[in-house]
Amino acid sequence: MKRLLIVFAFIAFVAHENVAQHFLGIKGGIGLNMQQWNSYERDILFTPCIDVFAESNDDELNKLYASIGYHTRGSTVRGFGFNSFNPYKFNNLVAEIGGKRMVTTDKKYNGYYMLGLRAEYTLFTNLEGQNNSIYNLVSDVYVRKFNYGVSVGGGFEMAYGENNILFVEMSVHPDLSKQYEQLETLTIENPNPIPSPFPQSQFITIVPQEVRNVALEIKVGIKFSRGYYDEYE
User: Fold this and answer.
1) pLDDT digit string (tens) for 181-228?
2) Is 209 helix (H, G, I), strand (E, B) or coil?
3) Is 202 inside a domain boundary?
């Protein structure tokens, strides 16, 4: 938790010194979340996401940004029915800093690309409610609360009024750390052995789990230039 507070303090400093005086904005959309559990690719989990951010405007082409938001990471296991699925959700507070470069600035729709570093803190999960199989036990005990990764993306901006800019953005967010790490192999007594004339083991071995998050996010947003606020000062 201390490391996350340090990251937030740094972001606040960057925003105060270089970013907040120029653009402030909000963006939100949908995330396509993916995970591998023991090399098994689970199904995509669709979740909403939202961020508030600040962005510099000293340079017409190159910009710095800082953001804080709420994102749900995870995956799901779908059954045969449309509503038959078991989602594995990690509800994270996400802080990000990075750079952004405009491709054009004089057209109706101006493209850009961006690269950033992320820090995430897991607030809560739904793992304890997903233990519907003795062979697939999961627990909050093995959740890594603090995670980090990179963000790569791009989009298009369009002026809206005198001081506002609308934009559409697509980005990919792979984690470099593990969201879930169950290193040791668990051996537990089988609570429901199947009746059989053949000898059976009275114990079940649950293999280790190592899980990283990858998310593809599509967002729309709006940002307001400093000139918008100066009119009211």
Assistant:
1) 987 776 666 655 555 454 555 666 777 888 999 999 999 999 998 654
2) strand
3) no
Domains identified in the chain, total number: 1
The phi and psi torsions of 79 (rounded to 5 degrees) equal: -95, -155
Looking at residue 193, its pLDDT comes to 57
Name, in order, each residue with C-beta under 8 angstroms of 219's C-beta and a sequence gap of 6 or more.
27, 28, 29, 49, 51, 168, 169, 170, 171
pLDDT one-digit tens code per residue, 123-144? 999 987 766 555 567 888 899 9
Query: What range defines the domain where residue 87 resides?
Result: 2-183+211-230
- Angle (CA) 112-114-115 rounded to 5° is 165
Torsion of CA 116, 121, 126, 132, to 10 degrees: 80
Distances, alpha carbon 64 to alpha carbons 13, 101, 156, 181, in Å = 13, 9, 17, 33
The pTM (predicted TM-score) of the whole model is 0.80
Distance from CA of residue 152 to its chain's centroid? 12
Q: Is residue 6 part of a domain?
A: yes
pLDDT at 194: 56
